[in-house]
Amino acid sequence: MAGIKVFGHAASISTRRVLLTLHEKNLDFELVHVDLKDGEHKKESFLSHNPFGKVPAFEDGDLKIFESRAITQYIAHRYEGQGTNLLQPDSKNLAHYAIMAMGMQVEAHQFDPLASKLAWEHVFKLIYGLTTDQAVVAEEEAKLAKVLDVYEARLKEFKYLAGDTFTLTDLHHIPAVQYLLETPTKKLFTERPHVNKWVAEITKRPASQKILQ
Amino acid sequence: MYNQNMVVKLFGQIRAGNPQRVLLCFLEKGIEFEVIHVDLNTFEQKKPEYLLRQPFGQVPAIEDGDLKLFESRAISRYYATKYADQGTDLLGKTLEQRAIVEQWMEVEANYFNVVVLPLVINIVFTPKFDIALVEELKVKLDKVLDVYENQLATNRYLAGAEFSLADLTHMPGMRYIMNEAGLGSMVTSRENVNRWWNEISARPAWKQLMEMAAY
């Protein structure tokens, strides 16, 4: 059995989404490091793993896929009986599944574009020797504040985004949230009591701590 | 007696990309539905009553008995799963096949739509659009379609041998490319992408949707 392989970078937000999922499920895997600074992800050798030249890519036996959210969902379903349940408690209830799916789309379309831009400005640009554009930061923070207002209302009603248990919907947010907690943008979370509580819960999980090492 | 509650209600505009994704899914699966018009021209989607349905002020939203959802891709996945045995199979038969369908659905959202949406907003809906931005986006779309051209050289559809949600989810955006956005040559110049678009846009469900939209 070839086993599970992740082709990616331990610091990349998308790669971390997959690593988190694997840790939550207590699955053994090999992280094959892709040197982003060196442009390895744009080279022929990597493009066979992901023709779009982005990390992560994933292998489980004969299955080879890319796109972090497709990978995490595959893992959550394929290894449903193992480790943390990342689906709804009654995984056969389709209406509950739909609510989780909806939350995953919200993360992808409403939260992540803003959070990723802010992480790029505050954190990754500095690694590449570039300077933070404060105008962009202000603009993106204003948009993220509105999104987090919707989250605050949601988390007043439910402990987690898709209901009362931790699911993939929450997990998908963790890597970007962790980066933003180290930046001035952190205030957008701390200003909102229910969002703040949720952030504390999801980042203190053992798997969430593991990916920071 | 006909129970109004038994038919799923879709809140949106028939001539809008995201609602079309859901409508197409309903048509492929033979699911009865009712469209409740939300007028985007008068920004009805930003009004308080609608925000209760979709807190980000976007279409579509659905109501099916007690279930209320938004996000067209989540809605499509739900109905494709719920009605797996009815109408067209949109998700594949195994977990592994579904993973590949999900992968290409992610590609549509993260590579295709992310370029096509601003292209359409600029070219079609903005009187004095940013020419430099549009040129930049066209270059990006070219690169994405090159990947599709390669994938479709050895696969009849994006996720393999069968039509799936991965193909369906592209169709509203592709329609804009071929029509109002005037970018059809990007498709017709690519043998496999062209073949793929011709085949999927010949499907009866798509033709039904086009009739509903009455362009």
From TrEMBL, chain A:
Pfam families hit by this protein: GST_C (PF00043), GST_N (PF02798)
GO molecular function annotations of the record: glutathione binding; glutathione transferase activity
Signal peptide from the UniProt entry: none
Segments forming domain GST C-terminal: 93-213
Keyword entries, A-Z: Cytoplasm, Detoxification, Transferase
Domain of life: Eukaryota
Localization terms from the record: Cytoplasm, Cytosol
Catalytic reaction annotation: RX + glutathione = an S-substituted glutathione + a halide anion + H(+)
Protein name, UniProt field: glutathione transferase
UniProtKB/TrEMBL annotation, chain B:
The protein's Enzyme Commission number: 2.5.1.18
Reaction catalysis annotation: RX + glutathione = an S-substituted glutathione + a halide anion + H(+)
One Pfam family this sequence matches: GST_C
Top EC class of this enzyme: transferase
Gene3D superfamilies: 1.20.1050.10, Glutaredoxin
Family classification: Belongs to the GST superfamily. Phi family.
Name recorded for this polypeptide: glutathione transferase
